[in-house]
User: What shape does this take?
Amino acid sequence: MRIELQHISKSFRHNGHAVDVLQDINLAVEPGEFVCLLGPTGCGKSTILNLVAGLDAPDAGTVLVDGTPVTGPGPRRVVVFQDAALFPWLTVLGNVEFGLRMANVPKQERRVAAMAYIKLVHLSKFAHAYPHQLSGGMRQRVAIARGLVMQPDILLMDEPFGALDAQTRAVLQEELLEIWRKTGCSVLFVTHSVREAIGLADRVYVLSARPARIRDVERIDVPRPRHADHPALAQAQQKILQSLAEEIEKVLRDELGESVRYPEGTQRVAADRSLGMHI
Amino acid sequence: MQRVVWYRVAFFASLLLGWQALYLLRVWPDFLFPSPQSVAAMLVHSLRDGTLVRALGVSLTRLVIGYGMSLAIGLPLGLLTGSIRWLHQTIGALLLGLQTLPSICWLPLALLWFGLNERAIIFVVVMGAVLSISLSAEDGVQHTPRQQIRAAKNMGASGWRLYLQVMLPAALPGIVTGMKLGWSFAWRALMAGELLYGHVGLGHLLMMGRELNDMSQVIAVMAVIVALGLLVDRMAFAPLERRVRERWGTGTL
Ligand SMILES: Nc1ncnc2c1ncn2[C@@H]1O[C@H](COP(=O)(O)OP(=O)(O)OP(=O)(O)O)[C@@H](O)[C@H]1O
Ligand SMILES: [Mg+2]
Assistant: This one.
């Protein structure tokens, strides 16, 4: 499935004012491609995912799926939400089965399929547990299984590992790449972390501060598994950090006033940290 | 846990002892301040001769009918006003306004409509419970986490299925809270109704105590009312609410 955003603009009403969030966004995800979206907090990354998912409509421009405009949600474009968004009243199995149930897949069949994906994310032992009994990382894996079981053509992931510790994050990144390789679906992956982006993606889009425009596109032609000390990665990281830092400074100025000053010559943004509000 | 239980037992035991001591001091005459024993004897007596059991039976029947009707009306009403905007703005606003009216204020109207009979009392009970049940259900539906609805739509849920399989279960914590609130409001409305216009029932028994100048009976009936309220709350609603909140992750505890 090929996704293409053409001249997308979007604004939200906030206290009666229109706030421009996206401005003339052009972006594409090729079939089977792994694309990351990087950008300062609040710039509109989740909004882009929602538009592709068809959960929101653009003010101007079109979202094309294999050349056809998107008019609503479709089960072939699945979102893994920032906070997992599991249904607390359903077990892990019930959550993973949900989409298949909506698609009227017979009970026996959907159970088998759901169990297979639960196994894929190493949660077989917890198939009958409820979300509140799971850790954050486990919930995130349920959310991924719940998306994968739909056998989507594209997985739209909104900072899926943002709230996890570094180690769990690394493990899940590996698992995700493995799954991606096996299923051959495309991935559009939102993250705050430059290191995560260059570790995962074929291409990285860097968005500007709100209203978001595409500021940079970086292609990363390094075979996986990747090592952080690969010269091409270091170079890409440097470039992305540079453009991001400028954008984040804009956000900070905007929010904290003109008084924010950075000492000359220091690295302003750490690659492995979350960017945005928390630097 | 154990300690809490001990504290409680000790506290209530000393309360009883204090009562007894105060009684022995004879500050007030017997008919104003009876001893714990005479209240207990009164309880036993009215249990034996059947008056208490009969009153209990009548009150509980009224309560169950009134509460059942409140659920049957209040839940669908709240779900509707919670999900349909213009109903929320019209009926929802009306319900919110009516909730400020203490339910016993419906008694005169009920007596005129239904006459001096069971239906009037049950009407007051319904008016006491139905509003909080429906307002809580409305609130529950309106506070369904947005992300959950988006996730459901994303996985192909829409229309009735979205409503029944996502909105409704997501609203359950609010609904359960409303059911619990409704029960206690129904109980209060019933007691008020029976006190003012009672034909048998616990409230009536309470009033009889006053008319006979029998303080022991008054206190005995009050104790029964408290015990019953506590029992239902502790045995049925509190555990249910706790479990739902825990599972749904909306609990504060
Ligand atoms: N439904 C909405 N109504 C009004 N404003 C909204 C709505 N959704 C998003 N916004 C605004 O649009 C902007 C972009 O939001 P979005 O969630 O897409 O940002 P983001 O890039 O995902 O941020 P973060 O990295 O913090 O998750 C924000 O300023 C937000 O306040
Ligand atoms: Mg976001």
